[in-house]
Amino acid sequence: MSRIDGLPPLREVIAKAGLSARKSLGQNFLMDLNLTARIARQAGDLSACDVLEVGPGPGGLTRALLHEGARHVVAVEKDTRCLPILAEIAAAYPGRLSVHEGDALKLDIAHCLRPPVRVVANLPYNIGTELLIRWLTPTHWPPFWDSLTLMFQKEVAQRIVAQPGSKAYGRLSILTQWRAEARIAMEIAPAAFTPPPKVTSAVVHIKAREKMLFPANEALLGRVVATAFGQRRKMLRASLKSLHPEIGEILARVGIAPTERAENISIAGFCALARALEAEKASG
Fold first, then answer.
1. Per-domain residue ranges of the chain
2. Cα–Cα distance between 24 and 44 in angstroms, integer?
3. In CATH, what class is 218-283?
4. What is the per-residue DSSP string for the chain?
5. For the segment 174-215, what is each residue's pLDDT rounded down to a tens digit?
6. Residue pair 259/235 in contact by the 8 Å Cβ criterion
7. How far apart are CA 40 and CA 136, in angstroms?
8. pLDDT tens digits, the chain, 284 residues: what are they?
9. 121-160 burial string, b = 16+ CB within 10 Å, else e?
């Protein structure tokens, strides 16, 4: 599909602007508006939602979000070359697109959005994981967003949704799934991008839970998980010994074999261990 609205096809827009993707900004442009429309639809009905988009570039996904009926799109773009293109899109959709120039890692944009909020973005590869972690670890929960529909390298997407017992399972899996439900919605081949990246991409849909999956002290759980996966090849009695001198006994008490490795422990198991360590600290 070359156009979904009265605006010119993306290739024409990019050629006219003399725009080329910059590796330093993690840019890879999606040219197929049919594909960007499919991505937008993964976020569900947007007609009653504000949408946050990070890194819109020449606006392929932006146009799809607006065409799919988003109430309002708030776009954050660091590349000043893209701003005139985005301004033309804003003019074609009066009052429905606001563009903020700047670095998404430095801008606090939540106050510009009216609930309910959904985040939909083809994230720049170089900041995607950091942004996800920030959105998953706000000061207060539930967060400002209802769902995240985000594109990552396939390898990162697999880490987000991985289950215990797999090599991809790790800190990012637990961080995400403790707070949200996550699934891979679709994969996108390198040929769909300009320039084509060396890896396949995947769109992940993440829906915030009202409360955490299992009770646990957030800071302590994070420390337990980071310590365990920091030495994932070691048995837990060795990798976690810095957390408590009797870690083997505590592991056994919560039903985890001290000889197990981090990749085999469920989120429930890590939460139980965090609660047990917190109880030990309180009683000690």
1. 10-208, 218-283
2. 32
3. mainly alpha
4. ---SSSSPPHHHHHHHHT----GGGT--EE--HHHHHHHHHTT---TT-EEEEE--TTSHHHHHHHHTT-SEEEEEE--GGGHHHHHHHHHHSTTSEEEEES-TTT---GGG-PSSEEEEEE--TTTHHHHHHHHHS-SSSS-S-SEEEEEEEHHHHHHHH--TTSTT-SHHHHHHHHHEEEEEEEEE-GGGEESPPSS-EEEEEEEE-SS-SS---HHHHHHHHHHHHHTTTS-HHHHTTTT-TTHHHHHHHTT--TT--GGG--HHHHHHHHHHHHHHHHH-
5. 999 999 999 999 999 999 988 888 999 999 999 999 999 999
6. yes
7. 21
8. 456 788 988 889 888 888 887 777 667 888 888 999 999 999 999 999 999 999 999 999 999 999 999 999 999 999 999 999 999 999 999 999 999 999 999 999 999 999 999 999 998 888 999 999 999 999 999 999 999 999 999 999 999 999 999 999 999 999 999 999 999 999 999 999 888 889 999 999 999 999 999 999 999 999 999 999 999 999 999 999 999 999 999 999 999 999 999 999 999 999 999 999 999 989 86
9. bbbbbebbbebbeebbeeeeeebbbbbbbbbbbbebbbbb
Give the pTM.
0.93
Q: How far apart are CA 34 and CA 201, in angstroms?
A: 16
Query: Tell me, which fold does domain 10-208 have in CATH?
Result: Rossmann fold (3.40.50)
| Sequence-separated (6 or more) residues with CB below 8 Å from residue 281 | none
Identity at 53, one-letter amino acid code: E
Question: Taking Cα atoms as reference points, which of 151, 101, 113 lies closest to residue 131?
Answer: 151
Q: Which two tokens stand for residue 40?
A: 């937008």
